[in-house]
Amino acid sequence: MDSVELKEALPKKLVLKVAGKKIGVVHGSGPAFKVLQMAKNAFDEKLDVIIFGHTHNVVNETVDGTLYFNPGSPTDNVFAKYRSFGIIEIDGDDLKAKIIRIDD
User: What gap in Å lies between CA 79 and CA 69, rounded to an integer?
Assistant: First the structure.
């Protein structure tokens, strides 16, 4: 749904190192029931966190040592179950992620 200009300006995926953690970021694509699998397959390397979107539906789960995190959407009230955003905190080896629901 993004403009062609925006899609051309941003990378399809990105890996960052933050506070000693490797974090992958990818928007996502495809049908909603396959987006988590797409996020799992998007990167060749082992990551601590993969942040993704596309569906606007929240995910906050750890599988095989990787946190899969979709913060939802702070603005979508059509496709998302509710409006939300996410916070990830890194403190040494400790990694905490939470979804904040925005109530109307």
Answer: 18
pLDDT digits (tens, 9 = 90+) for 10-49: 888 999 999 999 999 998 766 666 777 888 888 999 999 9
Length of the chain: 104
Structure tokens, 80: 């998302």
What is the distance between the alpha carbons of residues 21 and 24, in angstroms, rounded to a whole number? 10
45 C-beta neighbours (distance < 10 Å), count: 7
Task: Spell out the SS3 assignment of 39-75.
Answer: HHHCCCCCCCEEEECCCCCCEEEEECCEEEEECCCCC
Strands 49-52, 66-70: pairing is parallel
**DSSP letter, residue 31:** -
